[in-house]
Amino acid sequence: MGLEELISKMKREGTLRSREIEEALRRVKREWFVPERYKKEAYADYPLHIGEGQTISQPTTVVRMTELLNPGKGMKILEIGAGSGWQAGLLGHIVGRKGMVVTVERIRSLAEMARKNLERAGIRNVRIVEGDGSIGYSDEAPYDRIICTAAAPEIPEEWVEQLKEGGRIVAPVGRDIQRMVVGEKKKGGFEIIHEEGWYRFVPLIGKRGFPR
Ligand code: SAM
């Protein structure tokens, strides 16, 4: 399957709805973020290994999570789990020059790979931080949006603290299989506004994640 075929499939199935995300998929090509040996499979709709036992998520999942996140121009977004850098790159394109994405990765070699991939893709508004994103990243807070691309045991309170009022969090929650949880910070507190799925993500490992 090629990029255009994948885009058509995701539109037909109702996963891809936003014009901004469609544009980002064309501009920030998945083939630039997968290891050389998987280039031919870059537009197949399944996750691929990126090393260190980690994966670049399935395109349908990345698009669905991005739709749920509802990112917009000028926003500041925190991602937990940089992996290959593809999700961060898509978000970087969507938020544009006045926006910014901070992505945290706990595995050094992956953080370096994400940096190289994003550089090659010409994405300049993504900052890659090596560390434990299960406690967020307070240095750049507050954020308009927070997205986690690893399975969390629950939504950590640090993420909610680092979110702007009116802001939104999207994260897969659960141990072996996960629900995709969408929550918003309102005056009265944090509220789960939507849940769907079942998904299968690699675990979030860290202080507020699962033990190593
Ligand atoms: N978003 C990535 C992409 O576009 O390729 C895919 C992410 S992969 C499914 C999940 C990533 O989360 C892995 O790279 C893993 O090392 C990372 N991770 C797990 N626990 C973490 C933590 N506490 N802080 C930061 N990254 C973490």
**Small molecules bound in the structure, each named once:** S-adenosylmethionine
Give the overall shape, derived from the CA principal axes.
Answer: globular
Architecture, according to CATH?
A: 3-Layer(aba) Sandwich
Tell me about the biggest sheet?
A: 7 strands, mixed
Q: Low-confidence segments, ≥5 residues, pLDDT <50? A: none
* The CATH superfamily title: Vaccinia Virus protein VP39
Which CATH class is shown? Alpha Beta
Share of β-strand residues: 25-35%
Radius of gyration: 16 Å
Distance between the termini: 36 Å
Q: Estimate the helix proportion, in percent.
A: 25-40%
Task: Output the CATH topology.
Answer: Rossmann fold
Q: What pattern of helices and strands is seen along the backbone?
A: HHEEHEHEHEEHEEE
- Average per-residue pLDDT, rounded, comes to 97
- Output the structural class: alpha/beta
- Helices, by number, come to 6
Number of structural domains: 1
**What does the oligomeric state look like here?**
single chain
Number of extended strands: 9
Enumerate the strands of the largest sheet in spatial order, edge to edge or round the barrel: 5-4-3-6-7-8-9
